[in-house]
């Protein structure tokens, strides 16, 4: 690719959200903002190779997109509406209060992640308007048809307009609750890339994990004092650091105790550890993502699996259970407890979760592993069968099948 082509690609990654957000604030219409931004980047592809890259690419793109938006609105407006014409030319101020933080991109994030929208709509809208992913890219990521994703995004934008959802950062009182909703969207995107749920998907998709990390970095830049934003970023970094060692050449998932730790990304581990230390030094009570990040920091601090401080991990899961008393947290604690106190103790804790997690593949996989360690082979094979039946990830299914077949 030429230097000018690289410049357009770099500007797209760095400026897309800023351009869309600036237009959404000015015109109050997400369709207008998205389409005008896309037109501006298309013009850049044509002009920059001939005219050279502007000194301020973001400013050039925003100005170009604004002109395209004004042209579109003029075409669609009644020609005698002089008041609307004046607004288009002169109005640069927001129609809504700015909120506690004045940043167009943050307003866009909160709009896309508004609780009035269903979670799939929030995810698709965030990836499109904030992340800049195309509809086909989003569809491929979630194994859906382009038309279905396009309709979901269109319906979400229509609902925002019809319900008059304000384009602004929530008030200081509402901000913590609304931030948690934004983080939930980003974590869902990351998890779908980290361990794909669809049987026909690539088992690990770095494009999605990378996009989730990029968007979380953006939110971290905009909300640097928020501990849970830092915690989620640390959690993503420490998890992503292990990705190169997570899938074997034969397509099998590689468990944590079997991973080659020399293959982990040392820079991501170091950055994740730094964020965890910063949060600990703050003296503030940690939230859910911060505790999960601390658990991952303990795992990635051990030179070998046998060096893992399981007592600290169990204690962190106890802390997490007070924040999130879910059966999945209890399952992960039970797995850690098995490493600390033995497979029989861990199995007893896992079995207590059978009613709540009967349809969850990881529950049966954990049971199978513990039964195997206790040499209860026929029970272990049955548990592996059930885990394989419920699992959707191809790498995980391959690993479970091999472990089951070894018992024969």
From TrEMBL:
Question: GO molecular function, one example?
Answer: DNA binding
Q: Which GO terms describe its biological process?
A: DNA-templated transcription initiation
Q: Which residues form the DUF6596 domain?
A: 178-278
Specify the RNA polymerase sigma factor 70 region 4 type domain's residue ranges. 111-160
Q: Which UniProt keywords apply?
A: Sigma factor, Transcription, Transcription regulation
Q: Where is the RNA polymerase sigma-70 region domain?
A: 18-78
Q: Which Gene3D superfamilies match?
A: 1.10.1740.10, Tetratricopeptide repeat domain (1.25.40.10), Winged helix-like DNA-binding domain superfamily/Winged helix DNA-binding domain (1.10.10.10)
Pfam families recorded? DUF6596, Sigma70_r2, Sigma70_r4_2
Q: Which domain of life is it from?
A: Bacteria
- What's this protein's family per the entry? Belongs to the sigma-70 factor family. ECF subfamily.
Task: Name it.
Answer: RNA polymerase subunit sigma-24
């Amino acid at each position: 690719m030429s230097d000018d082509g690289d410049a357009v690609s770099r500007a797209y990654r760095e400026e897309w959200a800023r351009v869309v957000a600036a237009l959404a604030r000015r015109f109050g219409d997400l369709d207008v903002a998205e389409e005008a931004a896309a037109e501006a980047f298309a013009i850049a592809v044509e002009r920059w190779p001939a005219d050279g890259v502007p000194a301020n690419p973001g400013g050039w793109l925003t100005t170009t997109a604004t002109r395209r938006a004004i042209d579109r609105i003029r075409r669609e407006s009644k020609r005698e509406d002089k008041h609307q014409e004046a607004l288009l030319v002169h109005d640069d101020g927001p129609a809504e209060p700015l909120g506690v933080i004045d940043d167009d991109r943050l307003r866009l994030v909160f709009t896309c992640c508004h609780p009035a929208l269903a979670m799939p709509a929030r995810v698709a809208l965030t990836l499109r308007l904030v992340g800049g992913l195309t509809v086909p890219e989003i569809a491929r990521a979630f194994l859906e048809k382009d038309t279905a994703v396009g309709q979901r995004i269109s319906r979400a934008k229509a609902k925002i307009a019809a319900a008059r959802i304000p384009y602004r950062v929530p008030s200081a009182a509402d901000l913590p609750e609304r931030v948690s909703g934004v983080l939930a969207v980003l974590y869902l995107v990351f998890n779908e890339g980290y361990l794909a749920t669809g049987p026909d998907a690539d088992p690990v998709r770095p494009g999605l994990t990378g996009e989730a990390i990029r968007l979380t970095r953006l939110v971290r830049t905009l909300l640097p004092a928020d501990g849970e934003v830092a915690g989620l970023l640390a959690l993503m970094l420490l998890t992503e650091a292990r990705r190169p060692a997570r899938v074997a050449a034969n397509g099998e998932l590689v468990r944590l105790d079997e991973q080659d730790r020399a293959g982990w990304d040392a820079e991501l581990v170091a950055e994740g550890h730094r964020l965890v230390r910063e949060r600990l030094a703050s003296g503030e009570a940690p939230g859910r993502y911060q505790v999960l990040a601390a658990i991952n920091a303990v795992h990635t601090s051990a030179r070998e699996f046998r060096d893992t401080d399981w007592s600290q991990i169990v204690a962190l899961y106890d802390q997490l259970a007070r924040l999130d008393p879910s059966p999945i947290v209890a399952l992960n604690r039970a797995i850690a407890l098995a490493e600390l106190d033995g497979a029989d103790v861990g199995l007893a804790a896992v079995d207590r979760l059978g009613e709540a997690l009967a349809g969850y593949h990881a529950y049966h996989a954990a049971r199978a592993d513990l039964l195997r360690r206790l040499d209860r082979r026929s029970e272990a094979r049955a548990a592996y069968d059930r885990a394989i039946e419920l699992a959707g990830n191809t790498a995980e299914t391959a690993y479970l099948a091999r472990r089951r077949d070894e018992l024969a």
